[in-house]
Amino acid sequence: MEKARDVFDKMPLRDVVSWNAMIGGYAQIGHVDEALKIFQKMPEQNMVSWSTMIAAYVRDGLCQEALTLFYQMRRKGIQPNEFTFASVLPACARLEALEQGIEIHEEIIRCDYQFDTFVGNALVNMYAKCGCIEKSWQLFQEMHYRDVISWNAMLSGYAQNGYFVEALEVFQEMQLAGVKPDTDTFTSVLSACSGLADLDRGMEIHQEIIRNGFQLNVSVGSALLDMYVKCGSIEKAHDVFKQMPQRNAISWTAMIAGYSLNGHAMEALKLFGEMELAGVEPDSKAFVSILPACANLGALELGMEIHEHIIRSGLQDDLFAASALVDMYAKCGNIEKSRHLFDKMQERNVVSWTTMIAGYAIHGNAKEAIELFEQMQHSGLKPNHVTLICILSACCHAGLVEKGWQFFKSMSEHYQITPTMDHYSCMVDLFARAGQLDEAHEFINKMPLKPDATVWACLLGACRIHNNVELGNLVAEQLFKSDIKDAAPYVLLSNVYATAGKWDGTERVRKMMKDRKVKKTPGCSWIEVNKQVHTFLAEDQLLA
Which residues, at least 6 apart from 307, have a Cβ–Cβ distance to it below 8 Å? Predict the structure, then answer.
């Protein structure tokens, strides 16, 4: 580019073509500032000059500047062409500027460019990114010719808007139309499989990826990782990760998140260390993925070390990283530090408030949780279903039955939130912990949803504490109607019988566990020494 600039500067006469060539050259290598200087020095700009500069802004992520330049171009009376429209529409898409997008669409129709494939692709993408998926589908159907980019725009539009089934249907139509998929196609299709948690379909897509030779692509590999993680197949995710010849921050983060979300906190921490040794700099998403692993293990020293890393990376004010830190400190027992970080947050969303309320709930600080819940509403934010679970949990730990009832009844009345099984479980636990076992049982019988194992297990645990064998038998009868493989309810019932001295009942539970091949998981403890987390199992010989 330096040689080109030297030749350009020495030219005795420069026409508009040479000026535009310089703008395009600087834009292609990402030197938007230099491109703008050339653009501004031009004695006269034509449509190509403006269009090239608009495209440069969009490519560099300066979407608002691109839109401003487009409107300046129109005020100067310069007529855009199909390249201009195809360049400016992605700016509307990224900004979700639907109103401007509709204005530009109307101008496209007046200029008779609506059937141009490049313009059509940009329109389909813009409407999808702005949430107008029906309009996007309408324009897609009206296109005279569809290339792979057209299909990808529709596929990603459906997947990003949560229409996962429709995304898979479009992929099927694409195959029937004989259009060869590319890496972007498979990334979107895998996203749809992830959204549906459809492991079988995801594995089918994996085979198609191999047949098309894209299994080594880093973007496709990361999408495969994410799909297997979200479908709960952590082993297959690990296999994909190990086979990747190249890994970027997205790949590492997806695998770390997979371990963390699926209860493999130790593996998540180990992989995070490997990521750093590989020289890959963690981003906000990586920190958000690893902090829950520290929280679940109670590894405060490691969490504090990651906190320092976040500060060194300049991400301490990142909304998601800050919320994850609030959660980590609360779950590691330092509720004061958690609140300190929460108060320092420059921006808070529903997740931030809910995280702090949850922290107070697990520490049994119901008063502080309720006060924070009220402050959240005064700030103009409405609680979501998770916030209500946290506030009910806070009431539960503090034995605030009446207050919990008020919050539960306000869900549909004030917040238009329909209670889920988790909310009903909290209420049963609230009654049960307060010793109101009959009220808890009556509440379960009146539930509009069919009680699941968690609901019955809450009541069974209370039966053990309050030595209510009769109700314990009734609850167990309901609980064991399904073939439960989790050992916890069986152990609870066995303890109910043991507390009451009914050893024949204890023996029956053990036989039931043996017949159903249910095994009790050994007790497990963690201890953090010098930033190393050590695991101990019950009857571990190392403890002797």
Answer: 325, 328
Q: Strand, coil or helix: what is 206?
A: helix
Cβ pair 299, 332 in contact under 8 A: yes
Q: What is the DSSP string of 53-117?
A: HHHHHHHTT-HHHHHHHHHHHHHTTPPP-HHHHHHHHHHHHHHT-HHHHHHHHHHHHHTT-TT-H
3-state secondary structure of 501: coil
Tell how many helices (H) and how many strands (E) occur in the chain: 31, 2
What are the strands, taking DSSP E only, across 194-347? none
Q: Are 159 and 188 contacting, i.e. CB atoms less than 8 angstroms apart?
A: yes
Rounded Cα distance between 512 and 483, Å, is 10
Length of the chain: 544
Other beta carbons within 10 angstroms of residue 13's beta carbon come to 5
Question: How far apart are alpha carbons 539 and 522 in whole angstroms?
Answer: 8
> Alpha-carbon distance 434 to 399, whole Å?
6
Per-residue pLDDT of the chain (544 residues; tens, 9 = 90+): 667 676 666 676 777 787 778 888 877 888 888 888 888 888 888 899 999 999 999 999 999 999 999 999 999 999 999 999 999 999 999 999 999 999 999 999 999 999 999 999 999 999 999 999 999 999 999 999 999 999 999 999 999 999 999 999 999 999 999 999 999 999 999 999 999 999 999 999 999 999 999 988 999 999 999 999 999 899 999 999 999 988 989 999 999 999 998 889 999 999 999 999 999 999 999 999 999 999 999 889 999 999 999 999 999 999 999 999 999 999 999 999 999 999 999 999 999 999 999 999 999 999 999 999 999 999 999 999 999 999 999 999 899 999 999 999 999 888 999 999 999 999 999 999 899 999 999 999 999 999 888 888 888 888 888 888 888 878 877 776 655 666 666 776 677 777 667 677 677 767 767 766 666 555 555 555 555 555 555 555 544 4
CA atoms within 13 A on the CB side of 284: 10
The predicted model scores a pTM of 0.75
The Cα–Cα gap between 479 and 441 comes to 13
CA 454, 460, 464, 470: dihedral to nearest 10 degrees? 180
Tell me the H-state helices in 96-198: 98-110, 117-129, 133-142, 148-160, 164-176, 183-196
d(CA 322, CA 338): 10
